[in-house]
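Lab notebook, page 48
Experiment: co-folding of the full assembly
Goal: obtain a model of how the components sit together before planning crosslinking
Operator: M.T.
Materials (sequences as entered):
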Amino acid sequence: MQKIKKLLAAVLSLMVILCIFSGCGGQPEAGEPDNAGDRPPAASDTPQEIEHINFAAFSYGESPDYPLVIERLNEISREQIGVEASIEFINAATYVEQIGMRLAAGDKDMDIWSPGWDFPGIISRGQAMALDSLLDEYGPDIKSALGDLLYFAPMDGKNYFVPFNSSKRFYSTFICRKDIADAHGIDLTQVKSFKDLAAIFEIIKEKEPQMIPIAQMNGVIISDYNVYREAMPAYDPLGGIPGLDIMGVLTGAEGTKVVNIYETEEYADLLKTMREWYLAGYIPKDAATTMESGSLMYYEGHVFSYTMPETSASSDGPIVHAGLSRVTYDTYVLALNAPVINSSDGYYSLAISPHSQKPEAAMKWMNLLYKDADMVNTLYWGVEGTHWVKNENGTIRYADGIEAGNTGWETPFCWSVGDTALSYAFDSESDDPDYKRKLVAQNDSAPYSEVFGFAFLPDNVITEYTAVTNVIAQYVYALECGTVDPDKELPNFIQALRNAGIDAVIAEKQRQLDEFMASKE
Amino acid sequence: MKKTTAKSKRGKYLYYYLFMLPGLLYLLINNYIPMIGIFIAFKKLNYTTGIFASDWVGFDNFQYLFRTRDAFIITRNTVLYNLVFIFLYTILGIIIAIFLSEMRRKRLARLYQSVLLLPNLVSMVIVSYLAFAFLSSENGLLNNAILPMLGMAEISWYGTPGPWPVILTIVSCWCYTGVEVIIYMSVIVGIDRSLYESAEIDGAGKWRQITSITLPMLKPTIIILQLMFIGRIFHSDFGLFYLIPMNSGMLYNVTSTLDTYVYTSLVRLQNIPMASAAGLYQSFVGFVLVICANLAVRKLEPDSALF
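Observation: model returned without errors.
Model output:
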């Protein structure tokens, strides 16, 4: 009996230990469909050696049809370049951290990853490989498709990223409900400046008292300082991201002199307007603290309008976006400024890991995304016939029984990877099969900021830079949502910025910009 | 004969060690192995060359902490809040534990105990929205019902720093007192009943019993708990200080602590060495505090010292 007890104890403790080990050893499989099975055993039927690369992409959900789609993609790429890829999906919420950890650990299995911002930081930390010679040899189609856009964030004359090719003409837009605007006779063509919006909000407040006239987006009401068209004819945030690190900017009024945006008259004026809107009840009282995004509240129908940078708008006046599956009502999109391609529009890109063992194969595969329409459309929309079908006029639609919400291939690729000019347009977007190509072609006619390609590297002033981002996070949301009185708090803000060392950051930015301009000539 | 006892003894302890093994492994893997990473705080991380081959930069990564008044503000907030919390947890914990242990209906006492413990099990995210339900300017209970009833003006709670030390203290006590109560109650239950009986015979009232028996018997536990708290005086409850004020910038002066500061300033900027530097600073000062506190205790109460 005693022996049995002892044996039992030994077995139990062993089991506890085993459980713990098995807990540690398991690889996280979530979000990563089984991609070991779809690699063919060996390239025995093809004469040349097939190379495998791994693309670590971000995603927002599951793509159960991954085996189908990757098989089709690999069919194309095997035939054309002798390369096969597997795509690993990582949840977007933790993407940057996970990639960072894998790069730090020297992961040799990851070849391509997809950064969305902080390009100078990525280069400075050595998280991407310099691509120039690879581009010359294996990326001719990338170069011809992107043109100047390819050089949006060079460092020391080298190029590290292959940006997503789409329309880069970003407008600062005002987005509002068409049904409600029409019902109350609101005429958007009368809006000459964002300040004229107050009159519209007055009507909404009176006629639709249960509705919020304008909601915050990314924590602020007016998402872009670029709305001051006259005072800042060529505004460029010089790599700054709103709410994070907009420190020194170009206003266009003073050439390439870097200016502290927060000390400009325009900024004081913006805050005054926001305070008026807040006191008039146009802005929700919790705007500065709520973590909800205005666009989400808009989809839910509580909100009349919000502002957002948007590529699909027009300088000629408001345009209408048809209701989609998620937003059931039509939407007016009104451009508040003239578009400019500046140095810091959010460029989703592809980068090759510095630890990649097959950078050539990775570059060949990336090049195919700028060359082969089949490849691009399969990557974006799934397998033809299964997920989508072609219309007679050359546009496409979802296959029978499939719609935006339930397709088995829902990925962010159509807005972050490859060349959209090669992709088909959905019939809900346009009747013109050339719609996507024409959108991209607009880049050629859009004015480029004169400092396009400049990327600020804060390494030399990282202490001050970090301190300043803290001060910005402390003040901007409350100030730009009108929650606090700018007469009282703006001077405090400016003083706190000075104490944190914003002048040193701006001086460094000016020095780097001068160097950049000199190298351009 | 002797051999067999030694063997059976070893056999007896073997199982204890086996049961300990998972816990020890957990400590080793989770708490000790990561300490190797401390050196990252002194490097400029380059992902291409790897962690080990990156350049050494000395104490550069620590500079930003002391660059502004931020270091003073966050250190002050962290320490002062923790002192207040330690004081209140202990006082409230002891008072409630004594009340509960004096209750005659044990079933009811157990119910109260569970109710007190419940907030500790609720995620801070949910607590933050409970607080939001009170404090929201748009729909909050305080602004829409209670303040008008008292004839007071609305307050923009998330934009007014003044009341926040009190709000955070209330929320924190609401969440964590329950655990203290359980610890103190378990000690009180273990006190020899005959002490109380003889005290009663000697004519001691309830108050006298509490001050002369219960509190002295609790003293070692109180000291150990204080020591453990002091070791964590440089740590703050991230959820409490980040989520409850909804990370509102206007409140930073009274709600920023070391943990939230490190998070807000560094996670967004992806600067691992600087984050490590702040963590190292935090741990180092905490370590020194524990040693000092333990020294002090050893002088005053040698039996209660941790080591």
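Interpretation: Chain A touches chain B through 49 residues (CB under 8 Å).
Next step: discuss with group before ordering constructs.
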